[in-house]
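quick one: adenosine-5'-diphosphate bound model?
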Amino acid sequence: MLNKILVAFGLKPSQYTVHPFGSGLINYTLKVSGNGQDYILQRINVNVFKAPDQIASNLNLLQAYFKNTYPDYNFVAPLPSATGDYLVKTDKGEYYRLFPFVKGSTTTDFISNKKEAFEAAKQFGKFTCMLKDFDASALNYTLTDFHNLKLRFDHFKTACQNAQESRLQEAAKEVKEVYNHYNILQNYNQLIGNNQIPVRVIHHDTKINNILFDDKHNGLCVIDLDTVMPGYFFSDVGDMMRTYLSPVTEEEKDFSKIQIREDIFDAICKGYIAEMGKILTETEKQNFIFSGKLMMYMQAIRFLTDYLNNDIYYGIKYPDHNLIRAKNQFDLLNKYINCEKKFERILAKAQDGLIVAS
Ligand SMILES: Nc1ncnc2c1ncn2[C@@H]1O[C@H](COP(=O)(O)OP(=O)(O)O)[C@@H](O)[C@H]1O
Ligand SMILES: [Mg+2]
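yep, here:
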């Protein structure tokens, strides 16, 4: 099967070796090496992305734009197959695509120092900034309503109505937490409902292993572009806060290990603002810290909703897994909120730094 796919991309199977690669959780990723060349071959996860051709169309539009506007930027676009298509479909209905392997690049799964956070934030900021004049409405929504908090909240309410009594009781404290932080939803609704923040081209998946680094830990470019679509800056900024600040992930059961690393917050602010500072609107700047609250709250709601729905979306490894994940995210959110005053000072300094530098 793989041989057929390599042939479809114009590669002679006898000349290449193929190995599973990286630690991505969505697509199935392979490294193809031979003939002095390396490639990334990827099978798209069609359970998540129902319309792979819409992703391919987005990437083609973006590639053309980068080629014209920023020819030096390393936009990691799929390579054409022997017939000029960007996706190869197998008899089983699977979709494969081939990327050039970015030479000398590495990825990391955990932020270990503030330089990595700075470089990642800078790369995600740079990506959106370079696309500031690109018509975002030309892009397909590859995951509809992905970060729509209003809808996530509605799903949560429905789940509460339909949940088993035992699960509702187990989760009573977390259900209350959702309402304790209701002001986050209100602020979100106000921002979106009144068109107070601009629609931009947003990456929407800022996990640290979606940044390629060189051997000196400098950021090279962003990868994993399946969720690049119209959106709001708070998705990227907020998800970096959610996933970079704490040394442990949403899987951690010992909440005493959940901490907010202020130096990483500082690095995210400085990295993102270094690129986006000049184009962020006043409202976006005012909601920079809010971004983190929004994404932590939304993720807590999503885990809790899934727990109430008897775990139909997120894979679980033990019975209360989704409830523990929701508690973890609320713990993170509350610790984040406790730091808000400090964050305001750090953010103001990062913004001042930009003014001084320009
Ligand atoms: N063009 C590339 N060059 C080098 N490494 C890559 C490239 N594309 C993907 N990778 C590696 O493969 C991993 C998984 O790819 P990714 O597109 O992020 O898949 P997923 O959607 O499953 O996260 C990345 O974290 C990175 O380590
Ligand atoms: Mg990835």
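Residues 24, 207, 209-210, 224 surround magnesium ion (ligand 2) (CB under 6 Å).
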